[in-house]
Amino acid sequence: MHRLGRVLDTIPESEKDTRRWLVQVLCNSNDPQASPLLLARLNESEGKVRLEIIKALGGLGGEQAVAALVPLLEQQDHEIRLSAAVALTRLGNDCGPTVIKQCLDDDDPERRQTTVKALAQTCGDVEQRLLSRDIDRMAPWIDPREPITAKRIKKVAKRIGKTTQEVRALYESLATDFCLTFA
């Protein structure tokens, strides 16, 4: 594992895709040495590589990961704050859900939808379809401030082959985590 850390050190920041891929390899290795390697690079990395490290720390866990992620909740960068909140939520830390709720209630609709997208990635296939505006597991995502209507429930039920009662129950199970309301 130390070899992967040395390899990561040799890859220039401009090779973001390669660095991101290597971070994913470190995360999926289930090696206990991966967490310290990622923690050491958390504040050195930028952009998508940093987001990937934050996501990886949420999967690897540990007290050091929590200690590194909590301060990121105060970042100005919405994606960093949100990624840290999602990672902390995955780790069972109480700080994450509070920030997620704030992001779901943000005045900026794009930030609300980005939050739905980030949270949807922690859900199963059916839930992701319910949360995507076009019922296709892809952007654009629903806006939590727009109530779930009977028309949407009927449309989703038809698209995914479930009854309207089943779809409504699925939305109700997501309502608390995603701040969803019903019309």
Written description of the protein model:
- It is a single chain.
- By secondary structure, the protein is mostly helical.
- 65% of the residues lie in helices and 0% in strands.
- It has 11 helices and no strands.
- It has helices at 2-10, 16-28, 34-41, 47-60, 63-69, 78-90, 95-104, 109-120, 125-131, 150-160, 164-178.
- The model has no long low-confidence stretch (mean pLDDT 87).
**Radius of gyration, taken over Cα atoms and rounded to an integer in Å:** 18 Å
Unreliable stretches covering 5 or more consecutive residues? none
Task: Tell me the name of the CATH homologous superfamily of the largest domain.
Answer: Leucine-rich Repeat Variant
Count of DSSP H/I helices = 11
Distance between the termini: 52 Å
Largest sheet at a glance?
none
Tell me, what's the shape? elongated
Structural domain tally: 2
CATH class placement of the largest domain: Mainly Alpha
Which sequence of SSEs, written as H and E, runs from N to C?
HHHHHHHHHHH
Task: Please state the average pLDDT score.
Answer: 87
Structural class: mainly alpha
Estimated share of beta-strand residues:
under 5%
Oligomer: single chain
Count the strands? 0
Key attributes of the depicted protein:
2 domains; 183 residues; single chain; Leucine-rich Repeat Variant; elongated; mainly alpha; 65% helix
Summarize the helices and strands and which ones pair or pack.
Elements (H helix, E strand, L loop, with lengths): L1 H9 L5 H13 L5 H8 L5 H14 L2 H7 L8 H13 L4 H10 L4 H12 L4 H7 L18 H11 L3 H15 L5
Helix pairs in contact: 2-4, 3-4, 4-6, 6-7, 6-8, 10-11
